[in-house]
Design goal:
Elements: H1 2-19, E1 33-34, H2 36-46, E2 49-53, E3 58-64, H3 65-68, H4 70-79, E4 90-93, E5 99-103, E6 108-109, E7 114-116, H5 118-133, E8 141-143, E9 154-160, E10 178-179
Parallel strand pairs: 3-9, 5-7
Antiparallel strand pairs: 1-10, 2-3, 4-5, 6-7, 8-9
Helix pairs in contact: 4-5
């Protein structure tokens, strides 16, 4: 009987790890230290710099048009992952995990996440893509009314010239060693 119970526990653990690969032990410790070069590379891989400004109540994405087009791709990648279909699911992006996308019953921007249902987030990807198709360098794009008019926060797309390096905007952390909160990153 004990052998059957043990086998059941092993099978259950295997199924859990298969469905939740983030629970596997292959992550670095939460106090993993990133060098300036690693931080720069992660911003470049993301394609844009992201900052949350609680004072102005904005999520600001800063990058070239080509770099900012990674954001709708990121959203579509998120919505196409079946694990994210459940309300409350979330993923963090960027070197610090500061950009959070969350599945939620209504669309919105707040102090912790860019959220919405799978359909809402797909619509946000379309809205961002449409705005970027006609975006002019130096003319910030404000998205709130057409996505989530009741939101307290606004998404700002700050379009910079081609070849813009998103890591150049990370003045607060570059030049000193940064601690990465791995529990918040994907």
């Amino acid at each position: 009987m004990l052998a059957i119970l043990f086998a059941g526990l092993l099978i259950g653990a295997g199924i859990y790890l298969f469905r939740h690969p983030e629970a596997a032990d292959d992550k670095p410790a939460p106090t993993h230290v990133m060098s300036d070069e690693v931080i720069k590379q992660r911003w470049r891989e993301l394609g844009f710099y992201c900052e949350l400004d609680d004072e102005r109540r904005t999520w600001r994405l800063i990058g070239s048009r080509a770099g900012l087009l990674y954001f709708p791709d990121l959203l579509l990648g998120y919505v196409n992952d079946p694990q994210n279909a459940v309300d409350g699911q979330r993923k963090h992006y960027g070197p610090y995990g500061s950009l959070e996308v969350m599945t939620w019953r209504e669309p919105g921007f707040d102090s912790s996440a860019i959220r919405g249902s799978i359909d809402d987030l797909t619509r946000l990807a379309e809205i961002v893509g449409a705005h970027l198709a006609t975006a002019e360098i130096g003319a910030p794009i404000s998205i709130r009314e057409e996505y989530a008019p009741a939101s307290r926060y606004t998404l700002i797309l700050d379009v910079r010239p081609d070849g813009f390096d998103p890591s150049s905007t990370d003045r607060d952390s570059l030049g000193k060693v940064a601690q990465k909160d791995v529990s918040r990153s994907s």
